[in-house]
Amino acid sequence: MRSITIILILCFVAVFGDKPYEYSKIAKECITTLKLNEKEIRDLVPEVGEIPTDNEVVLKFFECCFRDFINNNGRVVENKKFKDYIRSCFEIRMTNAKHSLVKLVAKDCINQCKHIRGKSNGETGIKVMNCLKNKFQEYFEV
Length: 142
Fold this sequence. Notes:
The protein has about 140 residues and is mainly alpha-helical. The protein contains 7 helices and no strands. The two termini are about 15 Å apart.
């Protein structure tokens, strides 16, 4: 019964979660810090599909967004702040799901993506986010 409930919640979110998403506090701060505008970022960073790793603006944006989550060796720091950030990004997209379900989905996605690295912190951030997006999307392919 519990698995049926989870599937129904995920289906509901997949069908009704297609509205424009709200950016996280960190993303909004980076948009301001980098003197960008939200429309420009929305145009460059697709909600569906791969985020490009060859665009300087996108690289700087993700370097900023992941500044507290990537160490000097270019590795993701899997601390509470990182887990909370990813969970909050998922909550924005799973508005009707219970907190415990979002937390479970975020934890699984993080575990599958935390080892990815790029040539720079910005590229690492993009590659990790692409992985997280792909893993997140797999939950809705029912």
